[in-house]
Amino acid sequence: MKRDLQAMAQKTYDVAIVGCGVYGAFAAREAALRGLSVAVIDKKDFCGATSANSLKIIHGGVRYLQQLDIARVVESAKERKNLMRIAPHLVHPLPCVMPTRGLLMRSKPAMFAGMLLNDLLTSGRNRNVDSEKTIPAGSIVSRDELMQLVPGLTDSRYDGAAVWHDALAFSTERLVISAVKAAVQAGADAANYAQAVRFLLNGKKVTGVVVKDLVSGDEVTIKSRLVVNNTGPWSNEVLSFLEEDVTMPVAGLALELNFVLKRQLLKNHAVGLAGYRNADAKERLLFFVPWHGVTMVGTYCRLHAGRVDRIQVLDHDINSFIEDINSALPSAGITRDDIAIVHAGLLPIEAGSEMWPEPEPLRHYRLIDHGRKDGIEGIFTVLGVKYTTARDVAEKTMNKVLRHLGKSGGFTSSSDTTPLPGGDITDFQRFVKEAMAASPKELGNASMTKLLYSYGTEYRAILDMGLADGGLLKTISPTSSVIGAEVVHAARNEMALNLGDVVFRRADIGSAGMPDEDTLRTCAKLMARELSWDKAKVEKEITHVKSEVIKF
């Protein structure tokens, strides 16, 4: 996967996709798999903004039963199954618990009915799947069983719990990077650190994008028959390049926070718990998610009133979120010292909810043809909502794109069954067992497991790189399972241009907390060798990585 904006400027594409978070990445993959010529760019790194801030849960839609949104339940369960099929190394079943109480929506009878309805609506969820990806039927358990599943609960109102399964991403960042790689393998051209600065226009028709290369400083023009604006929170800003009265899809933005805690509060089950910041506050449902030996908690939400590029997490936000967590699970006794890292991202909200105490994130994706809506041909805008449905929205978007471009037969979608790179695995447990049995003695079990879950069948290329240079089989620190070959692989083969690209988005070095100085320096030196950095560049990169982490 090589970055070459100058070569991209010599072509005319069917589709140019601006923005490469999870929705842009899957849109590029979808378009390329269906035979379109595709360019995809992002002004940051791939998965470098909103998509990097996630609880990692791949929702099957059970939450939508409360709204009786049956179509969304079915759609989400289908896409959960699809993601476990095309990325079996990255997406795995996750048992979830919701305590029951009282006589209303969270009572045992109501939750039991919900579990039954969910099982009925998703009856095909286990058809033709790897046994490791089976989603069991939901159930109701007693209070004693709840206390065993979630030690430390003290709320006497809880009389049991609903138990069901969703899925959890081992790495959402690698899921996006894999989708970009899949797009490139299918013929797309991709470039990170490539900022759209204006549109190429022919009258009332968009015919391409003028792009600033943030590495070289040059400007290039990428010509295309159609542009898809996949920039999420930046959608209005990008559309303002048109200098026309067009539909601005983002009514407002919510700042959402997730904490990664240093402590492992839960071992196997995610749990949804209600808390109150104070006696007058609205009940807030928080999810506690076990992940990589730590605990993620989310989500805190408030209105964002500033510029899209200026996310400010205030002391009030941190303190309020801590209060929410301790209200939901008092035995945790969370303090600032327990926080390893803060994930923050902006999400579009429902129109009108900016006046509410807590804004409501957009409920449904939006796909806007600005030709039909505003009389500006050649540009679509897509606003996504959930990680889970990114592939499905990409398919629907490209259905519309193909009709717009006058292409028909032979362009059917196969993205729900075509594995992502590394995902051609039919029996994941057997794959892991066989690979572990053949693991070189120089490599620890934790490092081998990390390779298998991060890269799937592509682990062999990284392992071979390490075997060819024994030093690259060593871990980057005594406490890390990441080996040096992963860092070199990211720089050489996955378009990692900066240290942060590797630390936060390629090798999961900093996903669960900021690495120490020695670890950062080891990674920087490995990248320096690959990308010909001098000492000054190494120091600059280390300083920049430290600045990427939200201070609290």
What does this structure look like?
With 552 residues, the protein is α/β, with parallel strands linked by helices. It contains 17 helices and 17 strands. Strands 3, 4, 5, 6, 11, 12, 13, 14 and 15 form a nine-stranded mixed β-sheet that branches. Helix 2 (22-33) packs across helix 10 and helix 13 crosses helix 14. The two termini are 36 Å apart. The model has no long low-confidence stretch (mean pLDDT 95).
Jot down its keywords.
552 residues, alpha/beta, FAD/NAD(P)-binding domain, D-Amino Acid Oxidase, Chain A, domain 2, 8-stranded mixed beta sheet, 17 strands, globular
What is the strand and helix layout of this fold?
Layout: H1 5-8, E1 12-18, H2 22-33, E2 38-41, E3 57-58, H3 70-86, E4 91-100, H4 108-121, E5 139-142, H5 143-149, E6 160-169, H6 172-185, E7 189-191, E8 194-202, E9 205-213, E10 219-229, H7 235-239, E11 253-261, E12 270-275, E13 284-291, E14 294-304, H8 315-328, E15 339-348, E16 366-369, H9 370-374, E17 379-383, H10 390-405, H11 428-437, H12 445-455, H13 459-468, H14 484-493, H15 499-505, H16 517-531, H17 535-548
Under CATH, the homologous superfamily of the domain at 5-51 and 173-251 and 363-405 reads: FAD/NAD(P)-binding domain
Question: How many extended strands?
Answer: 17
CATH hierarchy class name of the domain at 5-51 and 173-251 and 363-405: Alpha Beta
What share of residues is helical?
A: 25-40%
Q: What name is given to the CATH topology of the domain at 5-51 and 173-251 and 363-405?
A: FAD/NAD(P)-binding domain
Shape: globular
